[in-house]
Amino acid sequence: MLEPREAPPKSREIDVHSFEHHWQDEADAAYLYRLLAAAEPDPKKKNIYSRLADVEDRHVIVWSDLLAKHGHPPAEFRPSGRARLLAAFGRWFGPGFLLPMLLEEEGRGSVRSQGKAESRGTRRRRADSCAMSCTDSTTDSPRTSVLWPV
Q: DSSP secondary structure string, 66-86?
């Protein structure tokens, strides 16, 4: 008589590389938003960029906690090569150059997380649109629903 087999235990392993990548992306975004805030002469925009950096910091904490919970606490933050390059371009060309690139990256990340494909042209148009109207005029707060669709 055959005995029923026990189901193999489900792996609780995480994709450490993927989690670390998300952690780095969020930390890089916070770093770049802080650079935007520091370079922005308009106090309203400066406030928005600072608050966006704070949002990214909260995301960094989420990823840090997940990594630590699974035995892989992240190292001290160091901006990626891409973030350092974007920061240099932002210093050379100003916030107007860096913001659309950040918004495009945010859009790419949210679309990826929703499992949808989006053309480069569509991302560019959405980034341009967000750059033109990244605040809710009634509350003067970041329109995160536009930047990160739910």
A: HHHHTT---------HHHHHH
Residue 138: φ, ψ to 5°: -80, -25
Whether the model pTM is above 0.90: no
Q: How far apart are CA 133 and CA 140, in angstroms?
A: 11
pLDDT tens string 10-33: 445 678 899 999 999 999 999 999
Range of the domain at 77: 16-147
Distance CA 53, CA 78 (A): 16
pLDDT tens-digit map of 97-118 = 888 888 887 777 654 444 444 4
Q: Which residues pair with 142 in a beta bridge?
A: 135
Given CA atoms 49, 45, 113, 150 in this order, what sign does their dihedral have? positive
Quote the number of domains for the chain. 1
Evaluate whether residue 119 is within a structural domain. Answer: yes
* Helical axes 95-113 vs 81-93, angle rounded to 10°: 140
Closest to 31 (Cα-Cα) out of 10, 44, 50, 4 = 50
Assigned domain for 2 exists: no
